[in-house]
Automatic annotation (TrEMBL), chains A, B:
This is DNA-binding transcriptional MerR regulator. The lineage of its organism: Bacteria, Bacillati, Actinomycetota, Actinomycetes, Micromonosporales. Residues 79-109 form a coiled coil. InterPro entries: DNA-bd_dom_put_sf, MerR-type_HTH_dom, MerR_fam. Keywords: Coiled coil, DNA-binding. PANTHER family: MERR FAMILY REGULATORY PROTEIN (PTHR30204:SF97), REDOX-CYCLING DRUG-SENSING TRANSCRIPTIONAL ACTIVATOR SOXR (PTHR30204). Pfam families: MerR_1.
Length: 124, 124
DNA sequence: CTTGAATCTTCCATCAATGTCAGGTTCTAG
DNA sequence: CTAGAACCTGACATTGATGGAAGATTCAAG
């Protein structure tokens, strides 16, 4: 399929798809005239890329993972790279949970104005 | 305390602390000569700011939350703002979990090369 | 063929947090 | 008082994903 259709089907802008190619995340075959053509599985691949992007991975990191994935992830090095990245994501989740808890503290205190503490300068 | 000490105690760069002030996240009182001075609770406040930053909140958003927090978060609007932000964080956590699961799929497949599928072009 | 839609490439712009450098001022220990 | 450390402001650079415009070319449908 062509880039416009892929964009429509994935919800990713044409601009971004070209960027993904530039970053070696998403190869495309070219027509004689130079237009990009994608195989059906590209839809799935873009979805994966998007997931990794929204998990905060950089295009560089995603590119490295993709190399491993495309190669079949057979080597122990590749596997440990993937595992490392997964662990990084889990650490990030912990971080988020922390932030959420902090916000919850603030929210709960807001129901009980007498409970002081906190970071605010305050008159005391 | 002065900015250098606050930086040392929080692990945040002096540059960033100045930026936080500029963004109205972290007020400072000024000495007659113009040097910033921070009260003890600033340490805690910086920690909170850092948590929110690493949760992906923008300085703009953090600033808005801080206003509510400093005001005592009494109004329903303030509370719903905080709750909305907490929910956004939880959605982000879901996103991360999704990405982690995707990676885990890839990792598991890597132990069992015959299990095909996936996004890679492949000779088939 | 012709024509209009889709694509191509190449730039330049943006946003946000932070780094860094320069040149000047303040603070503090001796 | 004085030297040197710490601080001040202001400016510019950076990184990364994306947006957007311009001008040329290709594709597909009639």
């Amino acid at each position: 399929m062509r880039i416009g259709e892929l964009a429509a089907r994935t919800g990713v802008s044409v601009r971004s798809l070209r960027y993904y190619e530039e970053q070696h995340l998403l190869p495309a075959v070219r027509s004689s005239g130079g237009h990009r053509h994608y195989p059906e599985p590209a839809v799935h691949r873009v979805a994966l890329i998007q997931h990794l992007f929204s998990a905060g991975l950089s295009s560089r990191t995603i590119g490295e993972l993709m190399v491993h994935i495309d190669a079949g992830v057979s080597t122990p090095e590749a596997r440990s790279r993937l595992i490392a990245e997964r662990d990084r994501i889990e650490r990030q989740m912990t971080e988020l949970a922390e932030a959420r808890d902090r916000l919850n503290e603030v929210i709960e205190v807001s129901y009980d104005p007498d409970a002081g503490c906190s970071f605010r300068p305050g008159p005391a």
